[in-house]
Design brief:
The complex is a heterodimer of chains A (377) and B (484).
Chain A: H1 16-29, E1 33-36, E2 50-53, E3 60-64, E4 69-73, H2 78-86, E5 90-91, H3 100-103, H4 111-116, H5 124-127, H6 130-133, E6 134-140, E7 146-150, H7 162-166, E8 175-182, E9 184-185, E10 189-196, H8 200-211, E11 219-223, E12 226-233, H9 237-248, E13 255-257, H10 259-270, E14 282-286, H11 292-300, E15 305-309, E16 314-318, H12 323-329, E17 333-337, H13 351-364
Parallel strand pairs in A: 1-2
Antiparallel strand pairs in A: 3-4, 4-8, 5-9, 6-7, 6-8, 10-12, 10-13, 11-12, 14-16, 14-17, 15-16
Chain B: H1 11-15, H2 17-27, E1 33-34, H3 37-40, E2 57-59, H4 64-76, E3 81-84, E4 101-104, E5 111-115, E6 120-124, H5 129-136, E7 141-142, H6 155-161, H7 168-171, H8 174-177, E8 178-184, E9 190-194, H9 205-209, E10 218-225, E11 227-228, E12 233-240, H10 243-256, E13 262-267, H11 268-278, E14 287-294, H12 297-312, E15 318-321, H13 325-336, H14 338-345, E16 347-350, H15 360-374, E17 378-383, E18 391-395, H16 402-419, H17 438-441, H18 444-457, H19 471-481
Cofactor (chain B): FAD
Pfam family, one (chain B): FAD_binding_4
InterPro entries (chain B): FAD-bd_oxidored_4_C, FAD-bd_PCMH, FAD-bd_PCMH-like_sf, FAD-bd_PCMH_sub2, FAD-linked_Oxase-like_C, FAD-linked_OxidoTrans_Type4, Oxid_FAD_bind_N, Vanillyl_alc_oxidase_C-sub2
Chain lengths: 377, 484
Amino acid sequence: MIPDNPSRAGLSPASEAELGALIAERFATRQPLRIAGGGTRVETGPVPGEVLSTAAISGVVTYEPGEMTLIARAGTPLDQIEPMLAAEGQALAFEPADMRGVLGRNGTPTIGGVVAANASGPRRLLAGACRDHLLGVRFVDGQGRVLKNGGRVMKNVTGLDLGKLICGAHGSLGVLTEVALKTLPHLPDRCTLGFHGVTVEEAVAIFSTALATPFEVSGAAFRDGSAWLRVEGLGPQMDYRRDRLLGLLKPREAEVLDGAATVALWRDLRDLAHFAGTDAPLWRVLVKPSLAPATARALQALGGEVSLDWGGGLVWYCGPGSPQAVRQVAPHATLVRRGGLDGPAFPPEAPPVARLSAGLRQRFDPAGILNPGLMDR
Amino acid sequence: MSGIAMPRPDAGILARAPQIVAALRDILPEDAVISDPEETRAYECDALTAYRCPPLAVVLPRTTEEVAAAMRICHEMRVPVVPRGAGTSLAGGALPTADCVIIATLRLRDVLEIDTRNRFIRVQTGVTNLSVSAELEPHGFFYAPDPSSQLACTIAGNIAMNSGGAHCLKYGVTTNNLMGATVVLTTGEVVELGGVEMGPAGLDLMGLICGSEGQLGIVTEATLRILPRPEGARPVLIGFDGAEVAGECVARIIRSGVLPVAIEYMDDVCLRAVEAFAHAGYPDCAAVLIVEVEGSPAEIDHQIARIREIADALNPVEFRESRNADEAMAIWKGRKSAFGAMGRLGDYICLDGTVPVGQLPYTLKMIGELSRQHGLEVANVFHAGDGNMHPLILFNANKPGDLERAEAFGNDILRLCVDVGGCLTGEHGVGIEKRDLMGKQYDGPDLEIQMAVKDVFDPRWLLNPAKVFPLDASRPWREEAADR
């Protein structure tokens, strides 16, 4: 099951054993590697080393809808996994984005890349992030050791949870070879409530009201003066939830989008289509939702545009602000698209936390060969 | 005392006990240090009561700063520290050693902040699980993880063990509901991990701490995700004449797209015990499922209708719907009294392995065979939706050798869980109980990397000693740590 377009250049081992041998050799010679799944997720910037792709370590190992469990090798393309789950009425509930448009790439997004980046889209608000659905991992560490952690069952507290560390480490602690994920039923009915001509303050107020209800709003995003709420359900659920929300938010008037329009809109919001087609720097900023309006306004004052997701908990900023200026407004900002900017993509850690992180990196990757400089400077 | 070995206490530390206690008294309030053997005896065990050992001293801090001060002293004087929440661990996670200082979170009882607009609560970790939801009730919110010990167990212990509960099929376990943690490291240094934002960038150290069984630090404050209370919830009871068909029903419900908040399972041994104890009016059959769904009345009716359709195709012995709160309580009554009911049958040990849901029928069959081989009765009551089994092995503590036989039987069951693709522990933790089985689940290098992680956080290996990692495997690490 080798994808049609494996990574164009660089190293592409075909098995976990081959990958282990390759990294062991690079460990011995202290030669750095740039880790990529399909190469569609992370703008590494000036990171040294030869590109190592896991695209050829591919294939679904098992999928059990009755157990809500998927096990797939890291290089398995997302566009192989998503239709397979959809055919059983299930999905990856954390709704990973397709970043190709916004990053101007044309690789094949892989499940390993999703996990390495802890990529989580609008439904993260309700369902949790990728890391919350990760049941187990197999990976190769910086010495070439093949390791495993977790398993395939939904409740597992056996030993330390290294999956949490690996998920979101962008390949810097180890190279994923296999992931086990929890899948969830995909509710069949959906609609969207759109509130137009609102300020960012009004948008967050709408989100706060909606998210304090038990109606399981599965998307709360804002862009271009419109606040959007996604409502889903099974049987009579969706109509009931929609009507209750409309009632609660009166006298505001809302446009109601049907199922097909909802799918299209949220794919667009998820993939940040509004920030594609430009190469201005793009920042991902995590804030307490009630601070989103002030953060959004301070970022806009630097020039450029913002949009919100996760009910205000996530602010996207696309604009020319300098890294210093952006991080002054938003200490938790990550640079997703560089747009010519140098410097670290990830926010600095507090000194004692940085010491722990450095200690962990030293144990997982003693020679510092896995994506050096990506997260650790 | 039975099969599980603990290392010999360090004679040097025991000899220095007066100085250690004096150093702790020096920096902590008068009533925060306990060293009188009459009083330390109250801390000699947790809920795995077969193992007991009074600690050298017990510290009961009221603030993060006091925890940090005690940790610093213990680090400087090279004294092992056993963190303790409410002591409800079933795996010996809070079992002391004679040369340790217990640092308990019991007096860290403040609710620091409730923020419904941003949907979190911030607490000191000595608050009980149930009191968190009680605090939230007037606001229309709740905290989702609900371990069955929730009346007593603390958030600190929930975080250390990554506790689950009956409702985690829908809402996840502690790690999915923890947003931030204030952690005191072994040196007494205090770090903030996570926060009120949703998943900050950088390595997920908070995710690593959650479920680490006190091996990496002590969590003194926590920011927890809170959820709006559902409009309503109703259980149904479904009886089957075989384990296999009950297991099939679980898989079909999950596959159907209905996501219940809970699917609980009880077998015939458990049903009979519960009936005799609680008179819940359960059917006399091979297996009972309790399935709970949430929502508005119309939503609940719809979901129950779907579940009935699924169950009917499998010829249940009984399908009982609750029409009101009293009937709902009656359905839950037996399940909630299951552990008490089993206690009346004799002594028992409660296991906690997880298996893939599709393997439930086979695993139950094999447990039955093992029960015959070992000559001990077993009852099964567990969270079926996620495959987290709780076999209760009945034995007689007064009969010489019976506990050892029960432990051997338990170990066989846990090995079986791993063999069918599951794990040793779903929510109770490894503690001492499953420590020496870790090699069954993880190969040498898999354990080595976990111990390397502990080594980063706890270079002197003072935190919660002799737990989680097999003693043989951890010996080289501990010996090296002695020189640091």
